[in-house]
Amino acid sequence: MKNKNTKSGYIALMTSIFISIILLSVSIKQNSLGWDTAFNILSYESKQQSETLAESCVGFAVASFLNNTYLEKTTLYPNGRCIYFPIIDNSPSNGLVLINVSAVVKNSFTNIEAVADKNLKMKIISYKELTKNH
After folding, report:
1. In the list 4, 46, 53, 75, which could disulfide-bond 103, CB 3.0-4.6 Å?
2. Contact call for residues 103 and 115 (beta carbons, < 8 A)
């Protein structure tokens, strides 16, 4: 009889260890999903910030072009940077100006190609996000 009690104790111990391992793995998986969600939210916020910064970069490029002070350069800000590429005058057609900028916030990039009309005081008439880095 003693032998039978020892075997049932062993089975109970192994069952509880097995159930504990399953519960622990489920708990770890749920916890990692929470971390993934948090990092996705942070990435989304960085992308939104880089898009907003890129729009500001285009505005600064237009103002610099109007004042004849435009330079190809990188401007650093506390939370990101703007990279200004050469402005192409009379492109894609006569009277238009092609502006390319890139904004970087953390690891999020936004590349903007804008077309401004010189006859309309450099009003932006075309604005698109490019998918590749310059």
Report:
1. 53
2. no
End-to-end CA distance of the chain: 80
Helix (H, G, I), strand (E, B) or coil at 104: strand
> Taking a C-beta distance cutoff of 8 angstroms, is the pair 109, 132 a contact?
no
Compute CA 122 distance to the chain's CA centroid, rounded to the nearest angstrom. 29
Q: Are 110 and 53 in contact (CB under 8 A)?
A: yes
Q: What is the pTM of this model?
A: 0.68
For the chain, residues with pLDDT lower than 50 are 1
At position 69, the amino acid (one-letter code) is: T
What percent of the chain has a predicted confidence (pLDDT) above 70?
84
The residue among 59, 61, 58, 57 whose CA lies nearest residue 71 is 61
Q: Which fold has domain 2-130?
A: Pantoate--beta-alanine Ligase; Chain: A,domain 2 (3.30.1300)
